[in-house]
Amino acid sequence: MVTVRDIEPGDAAAASAILRQAFAGEEIGRIDAAGVELLTQTGHALLVAERDGEVCGVVRMRDEDGIAWFDLLASNVAGAGRALVRAVEIRAQDSGLRLVRLKAPERRRLQERFMRWGYLPIARDGETLVMEKRLPLLTVREQRRDDAEAIGQLAAIDPWPLAQEARPGWFVLADGERVVGVVWVRDAAAGVASISEPALADEYRGRSLELWMIERATVYAETRGFHTAELPASPQLDVRRRDLEDRRWFPEGRVYRKSLGDRLSGGAMSDER
Predict the structure, then answer these.
(1) Regarding beta strands 192-195 and 228-232, do their DSSP bridges make them parallel or antiparallel, or are they unpaired?
(2) 127 pLDDT band (50/70/90 cuts)?
C-alpha cells in the first residue's frame, strides 16, 4: 500500500535519486540530497510517497494566488504518482482551494494520463500544456431528506426517520454532492447541548474535518440558547485534543466541555471550504 506524507530530512537522498532518474537531462535531474534539503529549507512544500517503509515518489506543491500548483512529480512504483496527485488535491481542497494546475510536457501519454485523472488543457506555455482540475466544494450544511441513506451508512443508524423530514441540528459534510460525514446536536437538558462524535467516510478521516464539523454544530447550539456544549471523549477526538483545547474544549471525565459564548475560540467558521 502506498501512503503519502510530508518529506522529512532523512528522505532527501531517496527523493533526489527518484528525481534524478525521472528528470535526467534536465536541470532538476542534477539535484542531490543537499539540493532537496535546500528546497525544504527555503519554503518548498514537498510530499513523498512511501511503500513498505521505502520512499517511492515525490511531488512539489504550492499555492499561487488561490490556485494549487504542483510539479516535480516522479515515482518508481506503480500507483505512487496517482497517490501523490490525490494528496495534492486533498490538501488543496482542505485549504479551500478549488483549482489545481500543472504544466505537462508535450508527451501524449502523459497528458492523456492526467486527463483520465480529471485534468483538462486550458492554455499553452511554450512547449508545455497547462492543465487544470476543478475540485468539488467541501461544505458543512444542514441535513436534507435525501441525505438519509448516506447518513444511515455513516452513523450506523436507521435512516427512515431522517428520510421523513429534515431534522434541526443535523449537519452533513458534503464533498460536492456526496455526503461524506455527519454530526448532530441534541438537547441534554439544563442548557447543555450534546454534540455527537462526527462520523466520517474512511478516506476523509485524519484531515481535521471533524473540527470543522464540530464548530458548525457548536455555532448552532450557541444560537439556540445553550450555555454549554459537550462532546464524547472518544479515541478519535482524543487525537485532536490540542486542537480542541485551542478552541476552548476541555476534557472533564468522559466528555469534552465548552462554555458557549466564548469568542476566544476564534469565531464561527465558514460553511464552505
Answers:
(1) parallel
(2) confident
